[in-house]
Amino acid sequence: MSIRRLPEDVINRIAAGEVVERPASALKELVENAIDAQSTRIAIRLIKGGLDGIEVIDNGIGIPSQEMRLALERHATSKLPESDAIEAVTTLGFRGEALPSIASVARLTLESRTADSDSGWQIIIDNGHFEKEGIAPLPKGTRIKVEALFSRIPARRKFMRSAKSEYMACHDVVRRLAMTRPDIAFSLEHDGRRIFSLNAGENRQRRVAALIDRTLKDNSITVEYQRDQMQLEGVASLPTFHRGLPDHQYLFVNGRPVKDRLLIGSVRAAYHDLLAKDRHPVLALFLTLPNSDVDINVHPAKGEVRFREAQAVRSLIVGALRESLDLSGFRTAQPADIQTMGKWQKSSDSPPSSVKNTPIHEEKSSLADSNILFKSRLPEAPRPPLSGKNLKNTNSDLWSAATKSPLPPMGRNSTPYPSESSQQTDFPLGLARGQIAATYIIAESKDGLVIVDQHAAHERLVMERMRRALENGQVTSQRLLMPDVVEMDEVSCDLFEQRQDEFTAMGLETERFGHEAILVRATPAMLGNCEVKAMIKDLAAEIAAYDQSLLLKEKFDHIVATMACHGSVRAGRLLSIAEMNALLREMEITPHSGQCNHGRPTWVKLGHKDIEKLFGRS
Ligand code: ADP
Ligand code: MG
Questions:
Q1: Which residue from 59, 68, 592, 611 has the highest number of Cβ atoms inside 10 Å of its Cβ?
Q2: Residue nearest to atom 20 of ligand 1 (CA)
Q3: pTM
Q4: Dihedral, 537, 538, 540, 542 alpha carbons, nearest 10
Q5: Residue nearest to atom 23 of ligand 1 (CA)
């Protein structure tokens, strides 16, 4: 056999294997072309997940009619700078492969008109063969129709999945591209159904929320961060707004959607102590860095990139997310979810037969004694942003008022609380009014009713406090009256023993005790009377699970979280009003206090409007 050059249509078809793997990859090329053409409006229509039809209409600069044939030729592009420097490319495309590749495996209709021509021009190519061309009525811009994709390549067609999964992939492509450009209006239609229609000029948070979940807008923070030559901005959900899969985590590098494992790892690191291990936040992050620090040419069709310094990028993402989440303070996903509201509403259908008093407990708990730091904070509780009355006095006034007459008798003037109480509800989380089920604190704020999960909230506070104490080197330990012996298997004991010094630095003093036990002599003072045995076992499990995989800082956070859990006010513990208020005030000034270590909210609020709804008043 002699060597010969491949004919053009065969070359294109081979290239098409790379560029046009499935409808979504063809769509990606077409939408990128529309973006590169400076369009401000892009409309996309799909039929059967793009398998039967893809249409992209834009209002961009268009292609001069005399260049349209060239645009359909291989390696013909208008996008490579004069210098031919690939590094200097600022457009999404530059290889000049997409149109000829798509045209070699489908029937492609290209119509375009530039601003200065009187009419549009149309060319039709069917599976690599020129079919016809001529004048076409058209406003300024470009319209490309791709029909019967792979119909002449049965082998390829067979590999396509259902129209539904092809549609999902197409939707994902459009979603990602639409996120990068809130300045462009996008619309998507599938089988005649309008999927979305987004206006140009939206801010990024709104655009991202519109593409993922409308409620994200109120449950996310914005990220803005700069380090050296790198810049990161974007939108990230509050830890209380999470999903079972990491399927809504988007990364963009220099304006291009990319898929990189680095993102998943960085996000996990940033949220690790704010979310349960099987829950995932929602986010879209836009990274900008010098072109010389990233290779976007690894696999453009798949969105793969390579960073010169991946570690620096990772640390930027983790740092930026952490810092932004720190600033979110005690915020949590609000309001209480719809279903819960529904339940409240149901119970109002049948009026209660007798009015029951909320069980408000007067009994003083032992919390203050068991928790040294907690107690010492009480007198100097942080001042609220708006009002500054002495907490203790106010509380005792309220306390007596509330207990003496929790519900005023009918017919009398119906204010159960002293009138000056209204201004004290200026605290963001309000003033404690009582406790229910010995588990939830009920507080009244200016704008509604606040319910706090005392265990979840306290666990978070202990953890943040511990973290601060450790950072400032102010850890004290509390000796146990009798050392506690914790029995565990030998491997766990070995692992534990290796970390002994680190634990000592955190106030937990232990000693190996024979083959299969650890002796505990002292525990971190701020944990109070913690459950020593359970805590040691949990710590050992943490070490076994994470020792290999996490950064030092992350391991440390895990350990603090585990300790905090064992030092927290349990559900079922009765609290005094003063203790409840101290907890609320500390939550207000503690970062991340809006969620527990597993990403559940620590508090919810029922606004006055919601309450009115429950009673059918609005
Ligand atoms: P590339 O985008 O890499 O240049 P393509 O094959 O995707 O290669 O497109 C070839 C050329 O056709 C582009 O360089 C551009 O000049 C022109 N073109 C394609 N689509 C459009 C469009 N929607 N609007 C204006 N010009 C377009
Ligand atoms: Mg292109």
A1: 592
A2: 33
A3: 0.65
A4: 170
A5: 34
